[in-house]
Amino acid sequence: MQRLMRRRASRTVLLCNMVSPEEVDSALHHEIQEECGKWGAVARLVIYHERDDDAPAAARVKIFVQFEDSAQAGAAAAALNGRYFGGRTVRASLYDQELFDHGDLTH
Q1: Mean pLDDT of 22-27
Q2: Sheet holding 61-67, edge to edge
Q3: Domain CATH number, residue 87
Q4: Where is the RRM domain positioned along the sequence (predicted)?
């Protein structure tokens, strides 16, 4: 009998095209946590700098927001996708929970 693998629903939102590396400062973490808190409890927030120097500046910063549950993450991703932040259109999507849990932030 074949065993079906069931993926866990993601609790993590990936925000792209929000800021360039030069715009990351101490206030950004607090601002994102406060804004994302509108959709639920933020368990963890990671601002990751991609090492690809050929990518556009705004694509080099990935912001990962992990919520307490997947429903909160889904609501946040839907609400934030397409919103404007600092003159940019934010791309928000759910991120693979297994990858996030294992520290793989490159996908």
Answers
A1: 90
A2: 42-49, 61-67, 12-16, 91-95
A3: 3.30.70.330
A4: 11-97
> Which amino acid appears at position 71 of this protein?
A
The total number of structural domains in the chain stands at 1
| CA of residue 93 relative to chain centroid, distance | 7
DSSP string, 58-104: GGSEEEEEEESSHHHHHHHHHHHTT-EETTEE-EEEEE-HHHHHTT-
Rounded to an integer, the average pLDDT of 87-102 is: 96
Within a domain: residue 68?
yes
Q: Cα(35)–Cα(45) distance, rounded to whole angstroms? A: 12
With 0.85 as the threshold, say if the pTM is over it: yes
